[in-house]
Structures are given as C-alpha cells and as structure tokens.
Amino acid sequence: MSISNHIAEKMNENIQIPEDIRQFLDGMLQEAGMLTLDDQMREGMIQELFYQLDNYLASVIVKSLEPEDLETFIKMNEEKKSKVEIEQFIAQKVPNAQEIFSGAIMEFKRLYLDNVATKRDEQSGTE
Question: Where are the domains positioned within the chain?
C-alpha cells in the first residue's frame, strides 16, 4: 500500500484529535517545512502523525508498566475500556506518567524532524 493510499485510508477513519495535539502536530509539519500542503493532504498527514504518536506513546507505556500491569493494560484495551479508565489506570501504575508522556512527545517530534531532514539530505544528494 502506498503512503498516499495509507493516508487516504486513515483520513476516511477521521479520528477525533484533541485540539492541543492537532496544533502540536500541525506545528511539527510547519517546522518540517511542509508549508505548501493543500487542506486535504495536511489533514491526512496530521491524522497519520496522530496515529504514529498514539502508537509511540503506547510503546512508552508498555515499557513503563510492570508485567502484571501490562497484562491488565492490554486487557483494558481489548475490552475497549474508556479513555478515562485507561488514563486513571496509567496514572495509578506509573506515578510519573505525565513527565514520561511529555518527554515521549518531545522525543517523537525530534525523531520526526530528524527523519525529515535525513530524507531531504538524501534527496538533495541524489539530484
């Protein structure tokens, strides 16, 4: 599946992104120099970044939980527990969760911007 098809498929899901996260992701795109995107492509990229950020944060949570808590966390997700229940569970089991999330979000941004810069360097080296 091509990236554009993947983005289009994700856009069809139209994930509800919290406004503060949406602004953060849009800022990442701007910082990466993605300034000439049409609205549809920008929205698709924001949706894709949100999906990637969500997966990245989930991996950080997994690393932060004890094995028995990880089993409970997985079960809660499988049972489609509410976001509030899951957040309460994480706050209870990972006392410094807010710090961990803040650091993970900034690391995600750094990784994304580094990746964009690397791709640009590769492209400019081949032309």
Answer: 3-126
Rg of the chain over all Cα atoms, to the nearest angstrom: 17
Provide CB contacts within 8 A for 26, sequence distance 6+.
42, 46
CA-angle at 105, arms to 96 and 43, nearest 5°: 140
pTM above 0.85, yes or no: no
Return the H-helix or E-strand segment holding 3.
helix 3-13
Q: Would you state the pLDDT for residue 127? A: 53
* 41: CB partners within 8 A, 6+ apart: 7
DSSP 4-30: HHHHHHHHHH-----HHHHHHHHHHHH
Instruction: Classify 114 as helix, strand or coil.
Output: helix
